[in-house]
Amino acid sequence: MSYFYGQMSKMKTYILPIIVFLLSSFISQGQIPEKDRLLLKDNWYIQSSAKITADGKTISRASWKPDNWYSTTVPSTVLATLVNNKVFADPYYGTNIEKLPGFYRGIRKEMPEDSPFRVAWWYRTVFELPDSFKDKHTWIKFHSINYKANIWINEKLAADTTEIQGAYRLFDLDITRFINPGKDNCLALEIFPPRGRDLSITWVDWNPTPPDRGMGIWYDVTVESTGAAKIFHSRVITDLDLPSAETAHLTISAEIKNAEAKPVRGVLTGKIENIKFSQEVNLEPNQTKAISFTPDKYDQLVINKPRLWWPYLAGPQNLYDLDLTFEADGKISDSCHTRFGIRKITSWMNTFDKKRTRVFQVNGKNIVIRGGGYVQDMMLRPSKERVDADIAYAKHMNLNALRMEGPRGDDYLFEKCDEEGILLMVGWCCCSIWEDWKLWTPHTADMAELSWRDQIVHLRNHPSVFVWLYGSDLYPPANIEKRYIKVLEENDDTRPYLSSATQAASEIAGYTGVYMGPYSKGYSYGSPSYWYKKTEFNTEAGPSGEQIAPMESMRKMMPEKDLWPISDSWNIRLHKVFYPAMREALISRYGQPESAEEYSMKSQILQLEATRGMFEAYAGNKYRSSGIIYWMYNSAWPTLYWQLYDYYFAPNGAFYGAKSACEPLHIQYSYADSSIYVVNGFYKDFNGLKASLKLCDFNMNLILSKEAIVNVGSDGVKKAIAFNKPNNLSKVYFLKLDLKDVSGKNISSNFYWLSSNGDEKADFTDLNKLPKVNLNYTIESLKKEGNELKLSLKLENTSASLAFSVNPKIIKSKSKDLVLPVFWDDNYFSLLPKEKRFLNVKFNLNKLDGEDPVLQIEGWNINSTEQKIKFNK
User: CA-to-CA distance for 639 and 642, rounded, in angstroms?
Assistant: First the structure.
């Protein structure tokens, strides 16, 4: 044994110094970061200041006990915490929201006098800071706090409301002098709600305003350590040589802050894959310096044949990683990581018929923007699971964009959009103090500029962000517009920006080349033919004034007794201005519903018909029409208007109308000239395609059949078949379209129900006379991959009648709830007599909640059937 210990002693003498040398070498190269980072998520408590007699010094003492406070995690608003603690009943159910104290309808600038949310609320947590934070600088980051706060740390006021204010502000505070490494530390925030002229989070008319107005901490809180200097605001600018896109030029920049009262000398090193670059940096005491690496001085930042980032369906979503490390005195002071994509966003103005349409380009290629208006959960509760479903649904519908009216969603949402190729329009909100400039004070304007700067700097590295909007329904006055543009020029001049989401020309930026609405039909009902009269880029539109959810969701929203007749549980979920037109259209086109079930089914068909027509009009009219943002995309709470799927993730008819219309290679009927077109969204030609149509009367007699061979160019639109409608058509008749490739594979299929009265005065009430039919179906295959089950289904209409609006579902065996989210190839589709259809669906088995999955098939005139799905668990 003595020999063994002797050898070990020799190893310590000779080997350990080598290990230490190698370890320090790795550290100096930034491969083993020294920075410690804590996410302060758990162990928070909140309480109203009206119920607390202690002061901030006492509350922020680690040993003080917050008796009778409400436990929570962060991010969380005050209301979300109270609901989670069962103080209030679920405000998303029935009319419970109206019972919340301080609840008010509409948009107002002040809370009611008796609101419990009118006063400040305290947020408090105790956390242990590791010993590794000793002899370093400690920083705390808040993003974001709504609306003002006094921040106390270990009995000391670290920052007050003169500094900490603004719902969209980012704060990075050096708290070294307040913290105790190796011990418990207490952080307490006295958070004040937004008041009349505060530039806060707004919901406008998308859903009710929560009575706390989103007061609280609605982003992560992090604590981290650095050496003497800290890296801020890393940035990657990517430029491309166009049109070839064969060479990229990168510019890297960051700010370095010396947090000490003595000079710091060091080296800032950057690494992108096998590319490395560095620069010596000298910092005076307490100095912040901007450092940049430009391609004219650093040849390695000129990249040949770069892997480009493209939007979904346009190409791959290639991403790169930038690591910056600042080293001083042989030690890493700070490091940061930035993910980016190499791509270039440009736009040009297409002028025709005295109109100006902005056409966006990615990497030199024109692209039709197809998306919807995105909104967070009403109580701002973060959920990666919900974001995953939101983005998966966008891709499933073949959409490529979302609009954020007010930067909404946590960092995960933006990262996910980068990864999945969903373009983002980011800008301020309408119809609130954000656009009520006549009420602004000089301080309001300052806060607006600071908030704009923080959001630009925070989001500018995301390749998914393709345009900034510093106005929404209105453009700002010249003095404010100049300040917004100055922020953009200083912090991000790589993207187009718009003064508003409307066609109005501001004094400075001029014509936007986009359009919004119009209010008469842009947010309520417009029949399919209406959209063929619209051009330009429409930033907010959709036949979505009233969109009744599938019945399974209706039952989740309200008690059974409220389902029929229409009750207050309906009314608080409908837009008081825009719902009547949609309801009138439903009744005039499809007939008066006699039950909630009938109302829901007819609503899905109305939504599908109108939404498909809108998206098809914009796709087929490119690039006079260059983009459409459906208003809205999702829902902040369970609502019955403005949504492509409901709060519970049940797709509606509009969902499948959009999915069909936005196919990248698509056959469609034009309501403008009654011709058949093929729309190609790919950047390549397709030759030898076979287009066909069948025109049938109401009794399914074949009236007309035509075929044509079609060649359609890259990103092109081609008229495939022109035909004259026969005389004496039935009141309701049907059009079936198919598009096959050269091998005979069906690549696009479409089905229309049309009226001999014309589209605007269509009468489809004869659909109520369709006879009931039975469908034959078999489950062709089942495949379990991890927690996902994939099912392939064959359906056949063996009858002599039309099977209209077939609605297959996956439900739970006991509760009969829908399994959501769910990904069907198609839904609310129709089958001609003797027609067969193969259909795929996938869903997450974890969503079964221990129940068995059941396949249920219903429809407009379908006899309902169901079958338990058996699979190896």
Answer: 8
Q: Which of 290, 267, 712, 202 is nearest to 491 (CA)?
A: 290
pLDDT of residue 23: 37
Quick count: other Cβ atoms within 10 Å of Cβ 638? 22
Token reading at 239:
């430029």
Residue 33: phi and psi, rounded to 5, are: -65, 140
Determine how β-strand 70-72 pairs with β-strand 44-48: antiparallel
Retrieve residue 530's tokens: 């209406």
Neighbouring-strand partners of residue 806:
829, 859
What is the per-residue pLDDT for 29? Answer: 33
Burial class (CB in 10 A: 0-12, 13-18, 19+), 529: middle
pLDDT < 50: residue spans in the chain: 1-34
Q: CA–CA separation, 381 vs 392, rounded Å?
A: 19
Q: Which residues of 390-413 are buried (b: 16+ CB within 10 A; e: fewer)?
A: bbebbebbbbbbbbbbbbbbbeeb
CB of 369 within 8 A of CB of 401? yes
Q: Where are the alpha helices (DSSP H) in 169-236?
A: none
> CB-based contacts of 516: which residues, under 8 Å, 6+ apart?
473, 501, 502, 503, 522, 538, 539, 540, 541
**Cα distance between residue 404 and residue 562, in whole Å:** 33
- Residue keyed to tokens 């081609």: 718
Measured between alpha carbons, how far is 426 from 452 in angstroms, rounded to an integer?
11
Which residues 6+ apart lie within 8 Å of 329 measured at CB? 266
- State the Cα–Cα distance between residues 17 and 23, nearest whole angstrom: 10
* Cis, peptide link before residue 632, omega less than 30° from 0: yes
Q: What is the DSSP letter of 114?
A: T
Three-state secondary structure readout of 293-331: ECCCCCHHHEEECCCEECCCCCCCECCEEEEEEEEECCE
Whole-number pLDDT of residue 523:
82
pTM of the model: 0.94
Pair of tokens at residue 117:
């949310």
The first and second tokens of residue 138, run together, are 């400690």
Please state, in angstroms and rounded to a whole number, the distance separating the CA atoms of residues 634 and 632.
6
Contact 548/600 with Cβ under 8 angstroms?
Answer: yes
Amino acid type, 77: T
Q: Are 140 and 223 in contact (CB under 8 A)?
A: yes
* C-alpha torsion sign, points 150, 151, 153, 156: negative
Q: Find the length of the chain.
A: 873
CB of 199 within 8 A of CB of 52? no
Q: How far apart are CA 242 and CA 199, in angstroms?
A: 40
Residue linked to tokens 């100049």: 482
Q: Cβ contacts of residue 705 below 8 Å, gap of 6+?
A: 692, 693, 694, 695
Q: Quote the CA–CA distance of 556 and 408 in Å, as a whole number.
A: 26
